Amino acid sequence: MQKMQRKFGVFLPRTADDAQVGMLLADFEAADRMLEALIEGSKAWRDAWSDILNRQSAMLSEYLHIYSDIVTAEGAEDASHALTPRTTLERVNVLKSHYMELKTDMLAEVAMVDKRIIEPAKDAKVSVKQYKKVIKKREDRKLDYERYKSRTEAVEKKSNRSDRENTALAKHRIDLESATAVYQDADEQLRSTLPQMTTATYSILPHLLNAQIMIQNTLLAQLYTTLHNFSQDHGFQSPPPEVEEIIAIFEQDFTSLRLGAESSLKMLTHGKAVHQPMALGNEPKSYSGLAIRSKTTLAIEERRTVKPIRRPSGVGGGGETDSPPMLRIESKPSPGRLTPASTYAERNGSGYFDNNKQLAHRASSNSIATTISNHSIAAKKKPPPPPPPKRITSHQFEYVIALYDFDGQSAGDLSFREGDRIRIVKKTQNQEDWWEGEKGGIQGAFPANYCKKAPLAGR
Keyword Cytoplasm: yes or no (predicted)? Predict the structure, then answer.
């Protein structure tokens, strides 16, 4: 009965612990969590070292499999493939034997993690668990005290008590006095013994950490000693060269292969990667994943800064060049001179690609509608064709054709691609200036030296 009352008492309003007792209980629980985390972390550390040793042996086995001779279905060696040098095979075999010996020695050292760290921590955990029974008994005494106190206060609140209630009140007061004494004795026991228990639990931590450091140093010493001796015996540098030196050697050996591939493969010869540098800048880290969106912008900025090989001869020359000329920002018209169409396009965030998508969508819709209309018209009498629109004389408009791609650098710029036809809205006598043009219903500024004069219609 008393056990059931204590279980229900847990869900009733509780009184606060004494400040000193509450602090002691919090420290004890923190020490218990520390032991649990230490045990779990040591197990993960032990398993990680075991995985390292297993993967090292497996890696050397795969190297031997890669370097082994290719045998045909008839059982003979395939003469069309170059054989691996015997010195390389012997070197891999030697390294594998070293790794197998190292694995045997280091697994014995890894097993010391259980003996010197995990098992002592578990022993301390058992002692902590035994002391938790003392804390549990003290919690039961507190529940009894709270129960008798609530009963006494409930009867004392009544102004007109009967004789039976007065008798019950007297009994409750006696029970409360007894429960209070037992509860206070339990608190005193915690005050006198709990600090020593917590201190003893924390005192084992330096010894466990010292054992972990010694085991880690032993494992690393065995591993690096084996690799150092192997490197010395077979002519490898120990310690290895710097990363910059390794990259320089790789680029020296790789450049001839890359240039040969770029000159012989047509797909690479006419691609964009040929004109880009091999060394890429360090990409900034992203914790939100939004840096992926900025990669395209970074690539565009890098392409804008590429120095031109030669510049076009003029608007009317029509000479082709390998890279676009340098832009003169000082001659660019101010944003206040832009037409409302370009301002509206920038305000709505629609760039060149968005406009092309809209135009492509309209063209596709018009094509589908025209096809359906032609099929329906073929089934009935063909109506007379509509009158042709009045042609505007060519001397009223002047056009240029883009020689390069231009993605725009700021608000109000007119983006275009190589081969696009642009109508000139406003221009100057200097080809090195920025002119204003219109393409696809959008007006904006563009560099004049990126274009050539378009031929007149009919020529």
Answer: no
Closest by CA position to 295, among listed 282, 308, 277: 282
Whether omega for the bond prior to residue 239 falls within 30 degrees of 0, making it cis, is: yes
Structural domains in the chain, CATH included, are 2-233 (1.20.1270.60), 318-363+392-459 (2.30.30.40)
What amino acid occupies position 213? I
How far lies 44's CA from each of 111, 145, 244, in Å? 13, 45, 35
Asked whether the whole model's pTM tops 0.85, one would answer no
CA angle 159, 160, 162 (to 5 degrees): 135
Compute φ and ψ for 10, nearest 5 degrees. -65, -30
Joined tokens for residue 70: 């290719």
> In sequence order, what are the residues at sequence separation of 6 or more whose Cβ sits closer than 8 angstroms to the Cβ of residue 165?
155, 158
**Segment holding 215, helix H or strand E:** helix 163-233
- Block residue for tokens 């309003």: 13
At residue 327, the pLDDT reads 58
Q: What is the mean pLDDT of residues 39-51?
A: 94
The Cα-based distances of 340 to 161, 183, 425, 440 in angstroms read 91, 84, 13, 15
The average pLDDT across 16-35 equals: 85
- Residue found under tokens 């009498």: 381
Angle of helix 119-156 versus helix 19-67 axis, rounded to 10? 150
Report whether 276 contacts 304 (CB < 8 A): no
d(CA 34, CA 24): 15
CA dihedral 217, 220, 221, 224 (to 10 degrees): -160
Residue whose structure tokens are 């390292």? 52
CA distance 450 to 401: 9
Task: List beta partners, residue 413.
Answer: 445
Specify whether the backbone of 235 is left (phi greater than 0), alpha (psi in -120 to 50) or beta: left
Least confident of 80-84, 174-178, 386-390: 386-390
Q: What are phi and psi of 131, to 5 degrees?
A: -70, -25
Q: Rounded CA gap, 174 and 73, in Å?
A: 98
* Residues sharing a CB contact under 8 Å with residue 392, sequence separation 6 or more, in sequence order: none
The amino acid occupying position 303 is R
Instruction: Provide the Cα torsion 46, 50, 52, 58; round to 10°.
Output: -170
Taking the C-alpha atoms of residue 12 and residue 408, their distance in angstroms, rounded to an integer, is: 70
Cα(174)–Cα(168) distance, integer angstroms: 10
